[in-house]
Structures are given as structure tokens and as C-alpha cells.
Amino acid sequence: MNRDFQGGGGYPRVPQRIHLPRGQVTFLFTDIEGSTRLAQMLGDGYRPVLHEHRRVLRAVLAAAGGVELFTEGDSYFFAFADATTAVGACASAQRALEAHAWPDPQAQPKVRMGLHTGLAQPHGGEYASPEVHRAARVAAAAHGGQILLSASTAEAAAQLPDQAWLLDLGLHRLRGFDGRERLFQLVAPELEQHFPRPRTDRTAPHNLPSPLTSFVGRHPERAELAELLSAHRLTTVVGAGGAGKSRLAVAVAHDLIESYPDGIWNLDIAGVTDPGLLAFTVATMLGLRPEPGRPVVETLVEHASTRRLMLLLDTCEAQVGAVAPLVARLLAGAPEVTVLATSREPLGIAGELVWRIPPLSLAPSAGGGVSDAVTLLAERTSAARGGRPVEPAELADLARVAARLDGLPLAIELAAARLRVLSGGELAARLHAELTAEESDPLRALDAGGPHSGAHARHATMQATVTWSYRTLPDDAARLLRWLSVFAGPVSLAGVEWLMDGDPLGPLTVLVDKSLVQAEPGAHGTTYRMLDPIRGYAARRLAAHDEEAAARDRHVAWALRALQAVGRGPDEQPVTLSLYSIDPLAAELRAALRWCGTGGSARSGLQISCGLDQWWRERGLAREGRLWLFRLYARLSETGEVVPDAELARAYHAHSGHAAVDGEFVEELRFSRRAESAGRRAGDPGLLARVLAGRSGALRDAGKPDDAEQACREVLAWATRYEVAPDALFAVCNLAELLWLRGALDEAATLLAASRQLEQLRPAERGRRTLDLLLGMVALRRGDLVAAHEHLTVALRSRMAYGFHGRACVAVKAMAARCVQGGDAMTAATLFGAAESTTVRLHCGPGIFAPFWTAQQEAARAALGDAVFDEAYARGAALSLGETASLALAVEHPDLALDSSRFAELPSGS
């Protein structure tokens, strides 16, 4: 990083004949991200690249009226008299750099840009103002290809470039400045959109999880492990599955937060499915991006080389072959980095201290209290019994149980589940009976009975612990356990019956009695769940018995059936779709998709993807939806499976919608065309009407509103002719939005009012109440607050009731605009802050009404003043979506206001 971005020294003077802007000045700093690396990679070829970079930037920025103060190395410093011009110039400059014919794709410089606006007066051909240093700090926070704006620049930029919008990145602390600065990213067509968090001083020094249950005991172990970490740079906590390694490591890491000023960063290696992505995942966690022509591990090591931080790498056994070389390289190049690893086996690295986690202590505490193992068993037993505390008289029996289980935490958790139906004395007696058996198995006392086939009394691994129970299962119960491993989470009895194609109650009872499956009563019936270690064990057995394909295909069929059922009532007739009904199925549907994309039917996967169409977008998961579809297309190519054109059309149509939400408009149009081609081949008029209706949205997103409007009118006429008008509802909505944009409010209102019946005939969409939302927007433009309020509350209430969260944010913004027009700027500011916060979290774009929202926010800001507006906006950003909706729905109806004409006095004599 050059010295100007560090804020040191003065800024070189320019000749006094150059006119420098004064007053409200927008300062721009730029430099090349990873310039040192780029220079090393290109050698003598770097100078022409640097020269071309300078030429391109100077041409664009100077043409826009920017005054160049200096060029030093790969850095530029410009001043602009107008913030709007400066923002537009930056966007143009990034596009010019992207479009330039560089000698090699690896040679393209990635330029970061930072803008800040403030009062400044030039003296002697230079600026001596803290605003310049603030601008430099904003630029230092950016990544290559990114344009960051301070809050003052965002406010001063009265008009953004076409189709551009500002992404609120939240408050950040700029080094050397008190307080926190709100930073914005310019998002515009042809500009890269996705970056790591800004490079600013972090307020949170760790990402350690907050456990859901209490951490019991292990005080000596915590102290010992903390002391070892102070003397050894790599400490690996080794033990069997279920021994409590992860919980202990997280607890110790929490104790040491203050010892690592650059943070403690936790990564569960089990979540890294591709070993080749491990270094990239660690780098992303630390806010780093890959550099051109350079292995990401080198970028990671260079970043860590000057920092004092700890990495907590959990469940390393999942990728030990990838973890070991990465950790070795990192420790060799970063002398202040400490690694705390948990694993079922050592990493095998020189200098590694292997610390084997002991079982929970069975010795009474120093004060004469119960042991750690008994404390854990008592706490978990109380939870299993609905919160009823364990009676003191039962503690002695629990001590016998804990001792018989060797103090292994997972075995104790299983025993606590059994104590839901047994007393401590009864369970201890069963364990004692097993102790006298020829081949002792302490977990056998937790089983429902069955033939005794022994094992050694003590076992060192969790797999062996589960095997003790598994080998005593009758054949039907063992098969059920294996097949249940295909479920990702809890499942109802009906789901188990579907999977096994018969009555599973007998073997299921055996599994519950053995604590291999947890029975969890709930308001809607009992569900059945396996702990993850047991599920993994059962899945391995499933594959070993050559049953995986059959079981997973059956699970896919169940998942597809469950997904289709959410849109139908008890009489199998369509009902209004509620996305809340899909939420509990998400883990199962992902598991089904994973199998469809690797070893199962891609066609079934496409059917599931289409069923999740709206859910993905409304939950901020449009990108995930696209990735699953790409994976399924690849599976189709691999297997040659035949998929009917109608199903392909629906999949392509869904893909187009995901791409639109994700801002990939070229991809949106491409898949819209594919959907049309497949739809025409299918010969289904209703399907084709839905696909063609979606085309208008793609045209609009491509910047062709006239073509989009014409497409809407054509598809509506076509759908009417073929008597499939309800399937063209999306075209009605798109056309109404386009009419709203160009001010044709009467035509929009007439169109929407005439389409009420169409919405009622579309149960998959009617919960969105889009027509009410649009009628409310028309009323807002007309100044009719009564109609606007009524339509918008109907839309918002329905969208929240049926789980359309992304669309609920639009309704909240509309209610905020209604508050602005009704004179309640404070509530409007709060609602805007809340809606924008949720919109960012859900990865939703600005939408077609973005300029209108901006104008209404500015009106509220003008009414309240900056400080009050920002405070209300920040207060809203802290609200949940449910709290936000409640606030919006609590806005008083205009007819209830004191000055409403409805309460005017009647003329005398009336």
C-alpha cells in the first residue's frame, strides 16, 4: 500500500495555474490492488501495463472534469467540484479498464477507488485538510474493481449513473479517525458486484460461535490448554468423536480473545467439501481475495505474516490431507499466528503438540460437589424431562451411570435421553447387569432388548460406541437405521413410512429405545432424529450394504412429494402457497438435490428446483438456486437422461428469474430464450404464457422498456386468445410497472383492477398480492393516501402471512413512502432503514421503484434533518423483518387522523 493511502506526509502541489475546486470538493483516490505482485509476475511487462492504466484513467477522469493532483506509482489523486460527476467518472473508468485490451487476462490491473466529499480550500496548489486523509482511508478500505463512497459523497451525488444504485455496507471504523463512517458500494451494470468485507478496523475480534447449551466443567483442561497455546504455535486437540473437542476448543478460544489483537477465526473444516478450496475458504474468512497469477495460499501467508491471530480449525479429520500442508505453510511464513486444531487424528506436522482430550472427570469437585460428568448428566437429564431438576437423592445413581459410561460426553447425552423414561436407579441397574455379562457392553442397557452379542467393556472411539448398539439390532431395525441416514434432519412417522414403504413402528421403537434415534414430541406430532455422528455411521453402513442408491432415490421421491404437498390442501385441491411450509423442508430438499446432482435423477432434481423457485428468491438464495440448476444440467449431460420439454421450460424459466434477482441480466435473457424455445416445443399454452410473460422482465432488465411493454401486450392478447389469461399474470404486473414508470397511472389502475380474478386463479402467486402492491403505488403517485394505505397494508399483511420476505421489503418501502406523504417522516426513516437492511441481507437488487424510494428518503431527510434521519434509519436497521412489518402495519389509517374529512362536523340541520 502506498504512503498516501497510509495518510502520511503531505500531498504534492500542482501548478497554481490549474484551477482547483473549492468549497464542497469530492476527492478520489485510486490504486492497483496487488500491484507489487503484478509487477513481480509481469517483470518488464509491468511498465507498459502501468502506463496504459494511467492513460485510461487519466483520459476518463480528466474528461469528466477531474483535476489531477498527483500520480505516484500506481496511485492517482483527483479532485472534483461535483460528486455526481465524480461517481459517474469512476464507473466509466472501471468499465474502460475492463474493456481495455490488456496483453493477458492475468495482466489486467484491478483498481480500487474511494470517494469522499467535504469542505476544503486549496492553498498554494495543494489541499491541507483532514477530508483528504478521510478519502484516502475510504480508498484503502476498497478491493480491486470496487468503488467505495463515504456517506457524504453518497448524499452529495444527486443522480447516479443509469441503472446504478448504492449498496449500504454499514458503519466502519477508518484508521486514525474517531467514530465510524458509513460506506457505500456503487453497484452498476458491467461492474463487479461481490467483494469481501471492507478493509477497515474490525469491531468484532472473532467469529466464534455462541453455544446453545451450557459448557460444563473441564476447568483444569481449559487452563492447561490455554497455557499450552501460549508456548506452542500448533496445538491439536485429539480424541474420539463425541469426546467434546469442539466445545472445549471454542471455550478456550473465548478465554483468549484479548490475547490476539487481530482476532480468533473459527472454521469448521467439515463444511469444506473440496480440499482444493480450503486455502480459499480461510482467505475469504479473513476478508482476502485471490490475486492474479498468485496461489491464494501465498496471499494468505503474506496477510498473516504481520498479524497476531489465532485460527481455530475444527474437525480437521474431514480434510486432514489438505489441512496439514496449509497449516505448515502458514506457520512457516507467519511467526505471530497460532493454530488450535481439533481432530480425531494428529495432523503430523513438525512442531505439532498433540493434546489428547480426557473424558469428563468422574472425581468429586474440590468442594465436595458432584463430578463434571455427573453435572453434565444432571443438566441434560433435567432438559430431557422438560426442565424438572434432578432430585438430590438421584445424584448417586447418576454417578454410577456416568462412571459406567467412562465419562464420554456423547454417551452421557444418549443416557440422558434414556432418563426421560427411566429413573437414574433403573438405568444404573441395567448398566450393572451388563457389567456382569460375559462380554460387557454398557450401552446395551439402553437398548430395547434383543440377542446379546458382546463386545469389550471399554471402547476408545465413538464409532465403536455406536457399533455396540448397532450389532444388537434385529435385521429390520438395522435396515431402518441405515435408511434413516438419508434424512438430513427430523422426520415424521409418515415420512418414515413412505421411506420404508410399510409400517416401521416396530423397528422404529427399537431404535428409539436404543437411543440411536431421538423421539421429539411436538405440537404437530412426534418427529424422529439421529445425532450427526450416528447418522454418519449409519450412512457408511448404508453404502457398505449397497443400499445407498435405492434409499436415496426413495428419499428424493419423498422430498418431491412433500414439496408438492405444500401447495395442496387435505382435499388435494390447490391452496395459496405459503413459503413457511417450505422452510422446514429446506435441509431435506438440499439433501435430495445433492443426490440428484451426483448419483440420482437430474430430472427429479429439476422438479424440486422448480418447486423451490419462489422460496429461493424470497429467502435471498437466488444464487444457490442457479448453482443447483447448473449442477443438474451437468448431470443431464453426463447421464443423457430424457427430460420433457415442458419440465425443461419450467426449469429455464426459474433460472431466468434467479439470474434477474442476482443481477446477472445477460444470463437472465439467455435462459428466458431457452425457456421460450422449450415451451414452444412442449405445446402447452399455459406454460408458454408464463414463459413469455417472464420475457418482458428480461427485456426490461436489459434496458429495453419499450420492447418490454410491447412484449407484455402481445402475451396478454395471446393468452386471452388461447384462454390461458391467468398464466399471463406476470405480464400484467410487468406492464403495470412500466405504465407506472412513464406516468400512465389511469391505464395502470384500470389494468390492475381488471386483473383481480386472474390473481385469484393463481394460488402459487396470490399470497404475494402483487396487484394490491401496484395499486398502492399508483395511489401514492396520485396522492390518494387512503387508497394507498389500504392497498399497501393488504399487500404487506399477506406477504408476511405467506412468507414472501423479499417482496415484503418492497411493501415496507411503499409504506414508508406513504408515511412521507402523510407527514410522518420519522416512521418513514425507520421503515426505510429496516427495509434496506433486510433487502441487503436477502441479496435483493434495488428493483424498478429504486428512484422513487430514493426521492422519498430524501424528502424524509429534508423534513427531519440529517442527524435525526440517520438515527431513525439506524434504529430501523436493527429491527427484524417481523418487527418491521408490525411497525408498518401499525401506521394510522389516514381516515383516523384528526384532520380527516370523515370526522368533519355535519352541516346544521343534517
What keywords describe this structure?
910 residues, alpha/beta, Alpha-Beta Plaits, Rossmann fold, seven-stranded mixed sheet, five-stranded parallel sheet, 39 helices, 17 strands, disordered N terminus, disordered C terminus, Guanylate cyclase domain-containing protein
Envelope shape: globular
Report low-confidence residues grouped into runs of 5 or more: 1-13, 434-462, 900-910
Identify the CATH architecture of the domain at 3-187: 2-Layer Sandwich
Determine the structural class based on helices, strands and strand pairing. alpha/beta
Range of strand content: 5-15%
**Strand order, largest beta sheet:** 2-3-1-4-7-9-8
Oligomer: single chain
Distance between the termini: 81 Å
CATH fold name of the domain at 3-187, please? Alpha-Beta Plaits
Strands, total number: 17
The portion of residues assigned to helices is: 40-55%
Mean pLDDT: 84
CATH C-level category of the domain at 3-187: Alpha Beta
What's this, in brief?
The chain has 910 residues and is of the alpha/beta class. Among the domains are: 3-187, Nucleotide cyclase, GGDEF domain (Alpha-Beta Plaits); 219-356, Rossmann fold, CATH 3.40.50; 372-470, no CATH class; 475-546, Winged helix-like DNA-binding domain superfamily/Winged helix DNA-binding domain (Arc Repressor Mutant, subunit A), CATH 1.10.10; 769-910. It is 52% helix and 10% strand.
